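INFO  loader      accepted 1 record
INFO  loader      residues=232
INFO  predictor   begin
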Amino acid sequence: IGAGAGAAVAVAVTLGLLVGIWLLVRRGTGEERRGARALAVVVGGGLVLGLLLAIGGWDYLVDRNLIWLIVPVVVISAAGLGLTAAGRLGPAIAVAICCVSAGAAVSAAGEIKNGEDWAGAVAAMGDARGARMVVTRDGSGFRGIRAYTDAVPLTAAEMPLVDELVLIDAPGTGSDPAWPPAPPAPGLSPAEEIQAEHFSLVRYRSEQPVSLSRPQVAGGLGADPRYVLIER
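INFO  predictor   done
INFO  writer      dumping tokens
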């Protein structure tokens, strides 16, 4: 849907897809439901697999890792919305889903025109050498970085060992006398500063991995604790 589309768009599209599935279950014939049953098994199996990988510690149960499941879900919903028994309701909902999704995609593509370029910020970060923390100062940056990386929110109880910390902020912060912020922990020191048209970035590195907590990093960099991410 797009990193900046917002929860309202996601909820609207999800409800539309659920209506299509409901129509298939309630109004579809046995043969029509049978055709969607295999796809339903794929969706269920994908969710179970993702959950098992998360429990086993091999991966994270996040939307990025489950996004491929949207394809069979959309096909199942489309089967319901396209039923003759769905009447005018099915096509109307299908058109609404397409319009909302297209609008959200255009909005996401236009973020760079509104002063945001999270894909560019991620490209500037480069590949992590090991465990890396990424911090943003607003929700838009948080969603954008999550959309373009495998980073996940750091929990309050975690204190991972990292040798790199990246702070991403709005453009123009280079003119602020307080920029870049002082390292939030001993051992870290500024290694790189980037002032781009659509973002500012400062990279801190340590010769030896240091243990950092979410409150420590957020407090030291003036960020919301919810916007502290970890890349492993």
